[in-house]
Amino acid sequence: MMPSKEPVSGRKAILDIRGLRVQFFLSEGTVTALDGIDLTIYEKETLGIVGETGCGKSMTAFSILRLVPRPGKITAGSIKFKGHELLGLTNDQMRGIRGKMISMIFQDPATSLDPVFTIGSQLGEVISLHQGIYDQAKLSAKVLQMLNLVKISDPKNAMKQYPHELSGGMKQRVMIALALSCSPALLIADEPTTALDVTIQAQILNLLKDLARKTGSSMMLITHNLGVVAETCDRVCIMYAGRIVEEAETFELFARPMHPYTMGLLTAFPKLGEKKEELAVIRGTVPNLMIPFPGCAFVDRCDRATDLCMSKKPTRVEVSPGHFVSCHLYRAGGEKPNVR
Amino acid sequence: MADLISYIIRKIILAIPVIVLATLIVFLMLYLTGDPVAQLRSPHSSVEDIQKIREKYGFDQPIIVQYGRFLVNLLRGDFGSSVAQGTTGTSVSSLIVEKLPRTLELMAIGLTISYSLGIPLGVFSALRQNSWKDRSVMVFTLVAYAMPAFWLGILLMLVFSVYLHVLPTEGTVGGFKSIILPALTLGLGNAALTTRMMRSSMLEVARQDYITQLRSRGLPERDVIFKHAMKNAILPVITVIGLDIGWFVGGAVVVETVFSWPGIGMLITGSITGSDFPTVQGCILVLAFFVILGNLTADILYAFADPRVRLG
Amino acid sequence: MTRIRGRLSDRLLSWRMLGGARQTFVDIFTRGRKNGMVVTGFTVILVITLLAVLSPWLPIAKPTALSPDLLKGPSSGHWFGTDQLGRDVFSRVLWGARISLVVATLAIVFSLLIGVIMGLTAGYFGGTVDYVIAGTIDLFWTFPAFLLALAFAAALGPSLANVIIAISISYWAGFARLMRGQTLSVRERLFVEASRALGANNRRIMFTHVLPNCIAPLIVWASVGVADAITIESSLSFLGAGTQPPTPSWGYMLHSGLDAIHEAPWISTFPGVVLLITVLGFNLLGDGLRDVLDPRMKGLRR
Prior knowledge:
heterotrimer, C: mainly alpha, 74% helix
């Protein structure tokens, strides 16, 4: 079910990331988790971020909220939210943004809720903080309203319950309620369905999509599952080893993948009804991010690598309108001829 | 609420066999050195006295019966009679009742000092992890924790009594001045432990996902730390309160002896040196009871604090 | 065919057991050497132990030798001064070290044995046996070891041997908990693991898998245990329920020094300081080893 889209141009950018670099300073060495990320999210769209574990997807999300855990630091780049530079704000100013204008849903709902406070009190805390509502009755009403919105059965009872008394799916609904309680402009969902049962995954995804549309929020959906991307996202970014290697509208990406990694991902993903003897794999493993390398990060696993790929880092080029790739095989406008 | 009440009732019921087991062990202690009568009689009893003791406790009867009588006596409040030099014939229970309040007040103040010092210090240390302030707190707690209670008491006595002449050496003077040193001795030792526990617990909690989640909701750092993190971090400390109380009871015995504080501790020590076994037995039983009671209270307190445990 | 298989798997398993334990000791030597706490603790213990062992041959007064210099402060003749009977405090402190170290080490060794046996038995048999033993472990665990030791020492009568017995009976619960936990988890894994298919003996698998994994926490626990045992022994002697005079134990010295605290504070102070240093040494060693042997502690920040 591919969403048909009008062209992207003409819409305002909610989030604009340029050259973001995040590094971790350990006693064994320095790990470059994000190596110059360029990313844009427009109003009212859902952008998918796809990649293997450890490629930097979550770190991108944390950077936007400036919650990069120590010993990590944002060492370069700019993050503009609605035109304002986030990296220059004070902590107090960031707090005004977190939960209110940009909010985040974490991966594992079981560990994302404070276990010693009830659902109602945690929701009430966020609502009263950002919306200034302190009257108990009004607060409870709003909490109930939110719980109804995320379709929790028997919300009155749920309010008084503790996180451990809820199922995984219900906990994730609460997380969604928490994130959307103040109608943020940008919602970041970090693998929101990975920790859930397959049967619940579809429900939660649909809920997310519906609510995001209702509140007019843009969504940054992080996942490693291409099926989720196909269902939910307007545009997709493919990440590898801390870099974005390809970016395009969903349909375009699936129809005309350009980067060898993207192609590998698509072939590796088994399709329903297809007969296969073996699952296709991309050979090799993710590089060690502690060792800096000058060329393309994918060079060891790429079937079409050249000498240039070993020595020079590829730049981002627009191969066709709205479709960007970082690969030496391409130049602006199309594939390079005679690349061997 | 209902699950909380059923949890409390369950815990109380579970404590009863423990108390019974304690009485059994104390009862069997009598037989450890072979002739139980030797323990129970005073050094200068006559043959008739010995015979009376034999009859009273029924030593010619099977052990089960003796144990039964022992239990019955306990329930009636009869802990036997002292055989110590100055107090031969006095009922042990009256001795205990006389001395118990002093020990309890000592323990109460010690507990207060311990937690009101230990918890804030632990949080303080955790928030400044690896700074020189944190490291000095760690060193200080290590030393205070390693120091045996009686040695700390003697040290404090040296400093405040002998050299500064500020406080009295003996606890019999009365009033605030005499209780402060022994209570401080008790409290500081356990404060060190509490600080370390609280610190490591805070550090553990700070790594949890929900803490980052709370920050991502825009909560002020003050709320994240003092409302959420602390409430979670204090749970392991509460779990240990039971063990702490046990430590306090043991520590009280020693500290009382150092400062001649007229409580159960002094009573036990005097009875041991004076071979007054019935008193020793009675005291041990009372102390054991308080340890068990302390554990029970700690368990119940924990259930109030951590909602996850009530389902159990 | 099965017989040859059986023997091969036995060999493999015992090799693995040694391997697991060997790794622990390798870790202790390589990483322990770099850990400040381990080095400090170990040095302290080494110095005190050497002094204690060599004390009969050192050129100092005998600990029970009376002299006319009563209650004299520290001087060149008597480094730590003399006590009420003119005895040299320095030599008494050194001899006291012998007592404390011997009592504590023996007590912990016995504790360990009792604890390991109880824990293994509980874990291996499971069911009612486990239920009963686990209950007993809980009881002894929540009860303060010092009070238990006091009770037993009081009942048995004050003497060195009785103190060792008393502490052994009181301290085993910690070791038992460790062993029981480990045995139970290995037992659970066994029902899933394929090693059963090798045909190797169930009991052999249990021991070869359980014990090597436990060596690390047992060593840590034992080190802290010796510190605790020294504290308990000296507390008991302080109260008069442990070693009796004229045996020069630290606890007794602190007690007798208490009476003379105003006139001759050195009688209590010096044994106290040495006692503190020794206990600290064992605690540091234990804490340091815990850091070294705990796999979670790697990769710390700058």
